[in-house]
Design a protein that fits this description.
The complex is a heterotrimer of chains A (151), B (329) and C (522).
Chain A lengths: L1 H10 L2 E6 L5 H8 L13 E2 L8 E5 L4 H13 L5 E5 H6 L21 E3 L6 H16 L7 E2 L3
Parallel strand pairs in A: 1-2, 1-3, 3-4, 4-5, 5-6
Chain B lengths: L1 H10 L4 H22 L15 H10 L11 H19 L18 H22 L3 H32 L4 H6 L5 H4 L1 H14 L11 H4 L9 H26 L12 H26 L5 H34 L1
Helix pairs in contact in B: 2-11, 2-12, 3-11, 4-5, 4-11, 5-6, 6-9, 6-13, 9-13, 11-12
Chain C lengths: L9 E4 L5 E4 L5 H11 L4 E10 L2 E10 L2 E10 L4 E3 L9 H11 L2 E3 L27 H9 L15 E3 L2 E6 L11 E7 L2 E8 L7 H6 L3 H9 L6 H16 L5 H29 L3 H22 L8 E2 L2 E2 L7 H25 L1 H7 L7 H6 L4 H6 L6 H4 L20 H24 L17 E9 L2 E9 L5 E7 L1 H13 L7 H6 L5 H5 L1
Parallel strand pairs in C: 2-5, 6-7
Antiparallel strand pairs in C: 1-2, 3-4, 4-5, 8-9, 9-10, 10-11, 12-13, 14-15, 15-16
Helix pairs in contact in C: 5-6, 6-7, 7-8, 7-14, 8-9, 9-14
Classes of the chains: A alpha/beta (151), B mainly alpha (329), C alpha+beta (522).
């Protein structure tokens, strides 16, 4: 039974995209994932409008002060089991904006992150790769579901 | 023995299990067609050519955490999606699928009206589920479902009377059985209008107002997650199958077709499945071709265009059936 | 001008644009009024604040005949007050609010002096762009995320009624907005009564950060103000610095820059046209547009090494040369795109559901466009003939023939159609530039320390006029970098056109401005 549940989760990761103060570079690459060249619907990945429907939260941006609480709230609204992917250098560490007066610098300051995908912006292939690696880590339940994509 | 057959027919074929899996299959077909129309591949990894994708979505949603918002009307929030789903499935059980309906001998005079009423009830429960979530987007989405449904129910019903008149019966099995010549040939205007009204009733483009993501987020589903969301999705898919099945029964000669050898029930089921798929493909094709209209444009289109046209269609059918067809046939 | 206020103004020609007018703080309204009498179509490009030690400089960059005239004045830091010009030029509204936020200048008589870009809980009397602002504590607070651990209060989600009006809050997270911003929309039934935007969710303090980095680092920083029109930001910044240093860039570099800027425009326009499809529920159109956008991304990657953030510009030229073998690849890809444009034109001309959703939606008249000082395709769709590429040519645009696309309807359809036509123009520009690519070096060496001075510069970004002001104090770090992005100038147009329209038209109308908030907030 749990095998079936894992299979279903692997084949049907619905994602929610939240921009926490990004430059749009990563965001357009996330949207590009849906389009004919990359077409992530092949893997059952669907972009959902509501946090309640989502399994994976794709976060971009360096997390500005205005957005931090909202990011936390959206994370809390998602039903378990849920995963967070930080997309882009800003979401991983703050990137070029680290140290600015309104920037927290990194999604992991606010919510736990399961996978980091660095790049400015990461190519769509890298984002797919990151999400797939995250999901594959679910297969072996003993190991911690933390992936460090080194691309 | 009879009891066993009855239980088998209700639960397995052509009853609940068959409808469930056929619905998931139709969902896959829809997604594949949409993807191909948009130059994409569509689901490809779950099962051969992604055929298990809807099943994976369904199972995954069942295993998710159930959250009930604090402000929601909790009891209605819990049960409304499941009731809506069961009512839809119940409605399909009345349609003759393998020559007779799931509950054999269930057909009675006027069951066409009964099924249309069941669909209305199911939509009302969908509205309730959105309203109960106490979310503005859920509320707006639910109100839009109801507005649109109430508007398009009338022309749909009028148009459903066209084949009923041609067959001289309000019983679906009788209508289906009387089509030696499918009614699509006798009343093509009725068929075209019926497809348009159905498109609106199923909330598909260009009439998918209740699902306008850019306006109402997830519509009535906004606050739902887990199993309840799974049933809401399934309700919508079953509604599409039901709509397509109605078209098949009313205009395309029902499950009846040539029987080449062996059991007629097998061939009838096959014809039924193929015909429903054909209708699903047509509606999905239309969906991909158009942009979404605005809610006021949708309502105007209904009251100013579709309603008069459906009255006209009925009148035309009556005239043809009375004066023209007796001479031809 | 000189005649009427002879002893009180000082005109310095060919400085910071066409001319700079130095006036006393009390006379700013008079000067603006005289400029308006001269030319009724005077608009405002930007208001720059500048910390000058004891005083705060305020510069009004006015736009007349497509060129910049700067009105310059000073107010004391102790009591920074100046009269608002919003009643004379409604388009100055947001500019004044921004300067008030960042410099603490009080604009007397401003209709709505509410906070615009800084966070809600920002301490009072702390103005980040003043040189003496103590930001360490705030920065540390944000980095430790002091407010995040607190249990959040439930928000009131139900629409609140104020009498007959219903208040709908859209954002900060909403599928129609790819970026987090908040809009309070007051509706009366289905009709929009008022729109109150709250931007600043993406405010990252780029202008302050650029003062703490060297010019070379700043090129990469300003590029990341906006991921979509990144090359335009970089180009505008390096051009401004080159103006200060009086460096003439080699001709080949100018052409390569032009090619990259136009590729940027192509990808941005295709992105927007696809996104517009998504907003009106036309997913097929979205998928098609983005499919045809991919070859442009490939070309950008081929020429610069990255799909999105191209990092091609550098002070003194471009980072990479364009090789001979790239030329046929560029040509074939663009030819293929050109053929597709016919198909989209046919769709725009004949698809009924698309036309129903976009025509006569959000109409912006030419007068309003001028009054609100909107820029770019939004202004051109309302019949305002303005394009920095023609008005104030930079890079190779002076030598390349192209048409400025204008339309007169001013509705959502016109705004999209302008962009569709501009795609064709852009393809022609690139074609021409590739054919006439001069030989020679693609960059020259420039010193890292920039001579003291200041300059303004403008670039026609995909969304409209992009404005930069850079002041150098003779070190490797700039003294002040001011960025005014096109969306910032265009938001008033959205508010204007949304009011009185249907609530269901808001997404389509909004997206036709091509809003980019990471630009707006910086």
């Amino acid at each position: 039974m749990s095998k079936l549940a894992t299979w279903a989760r692997l084949k049907s990761p619905w994602v929610l995209h939240f921009n926490s103060g990004a430059c749009n570079g990563c965001d357009i690459e996330v949207v590009a994932l849906l389009t004919p060249r990359f077409d992530v619907e092949r893997f059952g990945i669907k972009l959902e409008p509501s946090p309640r429907h989502a399994d994976v939260l794709l976060t971009t941006g360096a997390v500005t002060k205005q957005c931090a609480e909202r990011l936390k709230r959206i994370y809390d609204q998602m039903p378990e089991p849920k995963f967070v992917v930080a997309i882009g250098a800003c979401a991983c560490s703050g990137g070029v904006f680290k140290g600015n007066y309104t920037v927290a610098g990194g999604v992991d300051k606010v919510i736990p992150v399961n996978a980091y995908i660095p790049g400015c912006p990461p190519k769509p292939e890298a984002i797919i790769d990151g999400v797939v690696k995250l999901l594959n880590s679910l297969k072996a339940p003993k190991t911690e579901a933390k992936v460090n994509d080194s691309k | 023995m009879l009891d066993f057959l009855l239980i088998f027919r209700v639960l397995v074929f052509p009853g609940f299990t068959f409808i469930l899996f056929f619905t998931l299959f139709c969902d896959w077909v829809e997604r594949k067609i949409e993807a191909r129309m948009q130059n994409r591949v569509g689901p490809a990894v779950a099962g051969p050519a992604g055929i298990l994708q809807p099943l994976a979505d369904f199972i995954k949603l069942l295993t998710k955490e159930e959250i009930i918002p604090r402000d929601a009307k909790k009891n209605i929030f819990r049960i409304a999606p499941i009731i809506a789903f069961s009512v839809m499935v119940f409605a399909i059980c009345f349609l003759p699928i393998d020559g007779s309906s799931a509950i054999s001998m269930s057909g009675f005079t006027g069951d066409l009206i009964f099924i249309m009423a069941l669909v209305t009830v199911a939509n009302f429960f969908l509205f309730m589920s959105g309203w109960a979530s106490s979310n503005p987007y859920g509320g707006i989405g639910a109100a839009r479902v109801l507005t649109q449904f109430l508007g398009y129910d009338i022309p749909l019903f009028l148009l459903a009377l066209t084949p009923a008149f041609l067959a001289g019966s309000l019983t679906i099995s009788a209508i289906a059985a009387s089509q030696y010549l499918p009614f699509i040939l006798l009343a093509p205007w009725g068929f075209v209008l019926f497809i348009i009204a159905l498109q609106a009733e199923l909330e598909k483009d260009p009439f998918d107002i209740p699902h306008a993501e850019s306006e109402v987020v997830g519509g009535l589903e906004t606050e739902y997650c887990g199993g309840k969301l799974a049933f809401l999705h399934l309700t919508r898919d079953v509604q599409i199958v039901l709509g397509a099945a109605l078209v098949v029964e009313l205009f395309l000669g029902g499950p009846y077709g040539p029987v080449f050898f062996g059991l007629p029930a097998f061939w009838y089921s096959l014809w039924f499945v193929l015909k429903v798929l054909a209708v699903v493909i047509v509606t999905e094709y239309v969906t991909c071709l158009f942009a979404r209209l605005r809610i006021d444009q949708v309502l105007t289109a209904n009251w100013r265009m579709l309603l008069p046209l459906s009255v006209l269609s009925l009148a035309l059918t009556v005239a043809m059936a009375t004066y023209v067809y007796p001479m031809v046939v | 001008m000189q005649a009427r206020l002879s002893d009180k103004v000082q005109i310095q020609p060919a400085y910071l644009g066409k001319a700079t007018i130095h006036v006393d703080a009390g006379l700013n309204r008079d000067v603006v009024r005289i400029l308006l009498e001269n030319d009724g179509n005077v608009g405002i490009s930007a208001i720059t604040g500048l910390d000058m030690g004891e005083k705060i400089g305020v510069m009004y960059h006015m736009r007349t005949d497509g060129l910049i005239v700067t009105v310059r004045t000073e107010v004391p830091k102790e009591n920074p007050q100046i009269a608002s010009i919003t009643d004379l030029i409604p388009g100055a509204n947001f500019h004044e609010r921004e300067v008030a936020d960042l410099f603490g200048i009080v604009f007397q008589g401003h209709p709505n002096p509410a906070r615009l870009v800084l966070p809600d809980d920002w301490p009072a009397n702390l103005y980040p762009l003043r040189k003496d602002a103590k930001l360490e504590e705030v920065t540390a607070n944000v980095e430790n995320c002091a407010s995040c651990s607190a249990q959040h209060e439930p928000v009131q989600l139900q629409p609140q009624s104020e009498g007959k009006l219903v208040n709908i809050v859209v954002g900060p997270q909403h599928p129609a907005l790819l970026e987090p911003e908040k809009f309070q929309i007051k509706v009366d039934g289905e009709t929009v009564n008022d729109v109150e935007p709250r931007i600043g969710y993406v405010h990252r303090g780029v202008e302050k950060a650029s003062e703490q980095r060297t010019y070379l680092q700043d090129v990469y920083l300003v590029e990341r103000i906006c991921g979509i029109c990144n090359s335009c930001h970089a180009a505008c910044f390096v051009e401004t610095v080159e103006k200060i240093m009086s460096v003439e860039v080699p001709a080949r570099a100018k052409y390569i820059r032009t090619i990259i800027l136009e590729l940027n425009r192509l990808h941005s326009h295709l992105l927007l046209l696809g996104h517009a499809g998504l907003e009106i529920g036309y997913e097929t159109l979205f998928q098609y547009m983005w499919r045809d956008r991919e070859p442009i991304m490939d070309l950008t990657e081929m020429l610069t090494g990255n799909r999105v953030i191209s990092s091609a510009m550098t002070v003194g030229g471009v980072r990479r040369d364009l090789s001979e073998t790239d030329v046929p690849k560029i040509k074939t890809r663009l030819e293929a795109l050109m053929k597709k444009m016919d198909f989209y034109q046919k769709l725009y001309d004949s698809e009924p559901s698309f036309r129903m959703r976009t025509r006569k939606v959000g109409v912006l008249s030419k007068e309003d466009a001028l009054r609100l000082c909107v820029v770019g395709p939004v202004a051109r769709a309302s019949g305002v003939n303005m394009d920095v590429r023609k008005d104030d040519p930079y890079e190779a645009y002076g030598e390349i023939p192209f048409k400025v696309i204008t339309r007169t309807e001013g509705d959502t359809f016109a705004r999209l159609q302008v962009r569709l036509d501009e795609i064709t123009e852009s393809i022609n520009i690139i074609d021409y530039a590739v054919d006439h690519l001069p030989s020679g070096p693609y960059r020259i060496k420039v010193p890292r320390v920039v001579t003291a001075g200041e300059a303004v510069n403008r670039v026609e970004a995909p969304r409209g006029e992009l404005f930069y002001y850079v002041k150098s104090n003779g070190t490797a770090y700039p003294e002040r970098v001011k960025v005014r992005t096109p969306t910032f100038a265009n938001i008033p147009a959205f508010i204007k056109t949304a009011i009185g329209g249907s609530i269901a038209d808001v997404p389509a109308n909004f997206v036709s401005l091509d809003p980019c908030f990471s630009c707006t907030d910086r």
